[in-house]
Amino acid sequence: MAETTTRRPATGRLTALDGLRGLAAVIVVFHHALYTNPDFPGAPGGGDAPVGSALWWISYTPLKFLTAGVESVIVFFVLSGLVVTLPVVRHRGFDWVAYFPRRVVRLMVPVTASVLLAAAWVAAIPQISTQAAGTWLSNSSTPDFGWEYIVKAIDLLGGDGQINNPLWSLRWELVFSLALPVFAVAAIAVRKWWIGGLAAACALTWLGARTGSGELEYLPAFFVGAVIAVRLEAVRNVADRINARWYRHPLWAALTVGSGLLLIAPWLFGPGIAELPELQHALKGLIPLAAAGLVVAVLGWKPLRAVFESRPFQFAGTISFSLYLVHVPILIFSTYLFADEPWYVALLFGIPLATAVAVAFTWLIEKRSHGWSKKAGAWASERYRAWFGREEPEQTARPALSALAEREREDAGRR
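Now predict its structure.
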C-alpha cells in the first residue's frame, strides 16, 4: 500500500480492525479446540502441563498469544466499544430512536440462529463425557438436552448458554449496546483526561477480577474502546507524527510486542502464578490497556495495518462473528464423534467444518441480519415521527451528548 493512500478519511471504515477481529476469532477457535484436551491449562496455573511439554510451550511462553482465547474476547470488547461509539461522536444528529432496535436486531438474530444450530449439534449425538468432572468438555456437555436449553441460551441477560458457551460474552455486548449513551457521554467527558479514564478502567477491571464481578471485569473494556473512538483523530495525528520519524518502525514494533506480551502477562509467570492471586488480578486489570495498545498499533503502524488489510485477515474478519457463534458446538460434536480416536483427530475434522459452517452462516444469517436491523431502525424512526411530530428524533431536546461531541470535533480541529 502506498504511503499516500494509508490515511483514511474521518468517515471511512477502519478495515484493518476487521482483520484484527478476524485474528481474535481464530485465536478463540484454537483456544477452545485445545480445551478438548483435559490437560490444557484453561486458566493460568491450571491444567497438567509439565515443564517442557508441548502444552507448556503453548501455554506459558509467548506462544500463548496464539491460544489466548479469553484475552482475545477482551480485544473484541475494545473493538466493539470503538466501532459502536464512533458514529455517535462523528454525527451531530445521531438517531438514537433508530439505534436501539437496529442494534438489538443486529445482535439477537445471529444469536438466536446460532442457538438453534447449536441445539441441532447437541441433539445429534449423546454428550456423555468420559473426562473427569470439572474439565471443559465435561462442563460444556449437555447429556440431558431439552428445549428449555434453547430458551435459556437465547436469554442473554438472565439465561444460561450451556449449549453454546461463547454466548457469555454476548451478554456484555448487549449490556454495552443498551447502555451506549452512558459509555459515550463518559468517554467524551474524559476526552482531555483520557489517561485518567484509562487508569480508572484498568482499576475497575482489577476490582472485577479480584471480586468476581463480571460487570466490573468486562464492561470497562468497552469504555476503553469508546475513549479511543473519542480520541481517534488525536490518535491519527500522533501516528502521523511518529510515521514521519526515523524511529517509527522500532517504536511501533515495541508497542505491538509490548501490548501482546502484556495481554498474556499472567501466563508468562508460569504455573506458579496460581500461588500469587493478587499479582494475577493486577495483571488482568491491565488487559484492556494491552488490547487498546494493539488496536492503536494496527491503526497507526502502516506495515502492520497492511497485514491486517490483506485478504486472509479480511476474510477472517468477514466471518469472525459467525465463526465465534458457531464453532464450540461443532468442536464438541466432533469430539464425541471421534471419541475413540486421539483428541486431536476431532480437531482435524471440527475446525474445517466450523469454518465452512461459519461461511454459510455469514451469508445466510449474518448478512441478512444487517438488512433487517436497518429496516427495524428505519421503522422505529418513522414511527417516532408519526407519533410525536415530523421533527427528527435526534433534533428534539438534543442531549448533552451531541454538544460534547461537537466540542470534541472543534478541539480536534484546533489540534
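Residues 343-388 form the longest helix (46 residues).
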